[in-house]
Amino acid sequence: MSKTLQAIRGMNDILPGQTPIWRYLENTFAQLLSSYGYHEIRLPILEFTELFARGIGEGTDVVDKEMYTFRDRNDESLTLRPEGTAGCVRAVLEHGLAGGGQVQKLWYAGPMFRYEKPQKGRYRQFHQIGVEVFNLPGPDIDAELIGLTARLWKQLGFGESVRLELNSLGSPEARANYRAALVAYLERHVDQLDEDSQRRLTTNPLRILDSKVATTQAVLAQAPLLQDYLDDESRVHFDGLRARLDAMGIAYVVNPKLVRGLDYYGRTVFEWVTDRLGAQGTVCAGGRYDGLVSQFGGKPTPGVGFAMGIERLVLLLETLQLVPATLEASPHAFICAFGDAAELAAAGLAERLRDALPGLRLLVNAGGGSFKSQFKKADKSGARFALILGGDELGARVVGCKPLRDDGEQQSIAWDALGDYLAPWVASVDDKNEGRHE
Ligand code: ATP
Ligand code: MG
To answer: Which of 60, 72, 86, 320 gets the highest tally of CB atoms within 10 A of its CB?
Structure first.
């Protein structure tokens, strides 16, 4: 196939074999968020480029190297969203959702776009579920956000496979002081730094702390620590968060080098990390961004949030073999019909059954075929019963009802009685495959 008729590199089709896992994750999370009082917001995928340039910040990898930016027919510079926070803040401001100190607890899900080198766990179109909270300044909500992600991991069965890393970035002033001290220190060792870090010395020096290069790491070992520059209020905030996590029984590691790639964070930052996915080990990341709303022209509004990468969570579920076996419920019944008249009768019968039994999962054979081939399809579908409708059954207004999951006898059931016959298997909406006969 010619290249331009294939999917763009790093942008994946999510095939039917995978979508049940995605839906499982999304549903689990949506239910969890709802139980904590969070509400969904749906946001555009395209925004003006300036929103991200100002929100995420020039000098960050995302803005400098990773954005999909283009001019539209009206010559406006637009960008496919690389993350959700900037757009969410814009929407909250635009609709006055956080006006007058109103608390908002929001979540969103959807595709994000970054021009990165595609590899396992890193794609150019990827998906996030994100949460943003406005107008709650205290560490209690930081702890709630971390607590609800911990609960999600518990529900998914991740156990000890993910760990929480935590840091405080302090106030903007504290960070500026620290940045100056860090730059002064690193400038004395500039020839030992890798090339990327040398460049970042002027553009985004805190990002150097993230470097994986051994020689740079060696220099960083003696570097000043952000912790020593924290302002008192941020220290109290951080202590409050840690006390709450302890009270909640949530283990964490303070990682003084955790700074996060985006400019807008201050005070709390955190990441959930796994060792089971190689280099792409961060499955969830977030932090506090009390300055972002005012940066967009709004009144000072505390904000805190996080985003998790769905692809990485799917990979982790698969790696740890935690995908539940029965994500897609099998059909209750599969109708096999032979001949034109029986096919017509089957079409009518199927509708009457669906009317009578809400929740019924019923497949009707399409495309004709021999008795053997239809029966094989019925069996392959996982259906509990094959409902057989041939010339004889048609004349007697019955179907042959053949159990496919046990070796029970085929029974002849009148059309009018079929609803009652199937009802016990359809009794509960989430009955999976476990039908019961009274
Ligand atoms: P990384 O350090 O892995 O590049 P990041 O700090 O750029 O991550 P965030 O902007 O914090 O990532 O996004 C939150 C989460 O979204 C990440 O923790 C990760 O799970 C996921 N994510 C980010 N970029 C990608 C990508 N290109 N492909 C798949 N998932 C991603
Ligand atoms: Mg990144």
So the answer is: 86
Task: Give the model confidence (pLDDT) of 53-99 as tens digits.
Answer: 999 887 788 998 999 999 999 999 999 999 999 999 999 999 999 99
Confidence of residue 261 (pLDDT cuts 50, 70, 90): low
Tell me the two tokens of residue 391. 């010339």
Task: Tell how far the Cα of 234 is from the centroid of ligand 1, in angstroms.
Answer: 26
**How far, CA to CA in Å, does 424 sit from each of 22, 332, 334, 412, 428?**
30, 11, 16, 18, 8
- What angle do the packed helices 195-203 and 172-187 form, to 10 degrees? 140
- What structural domains and CATH numbers belong to the chain? 19-170+230-319 (3.30.930.10), 333-434 (3.40.50.800)
Atom of ligand 1 nearest to the CA of 124: 27
Atom of ligand 1 nearest to the CA of 271: 18
C-alpha 281 – ligand 1 centre gap (Å):
9
pTM over cut 0.85: yes
- The ligand minimizing its distance to the Cα of 126 is 1
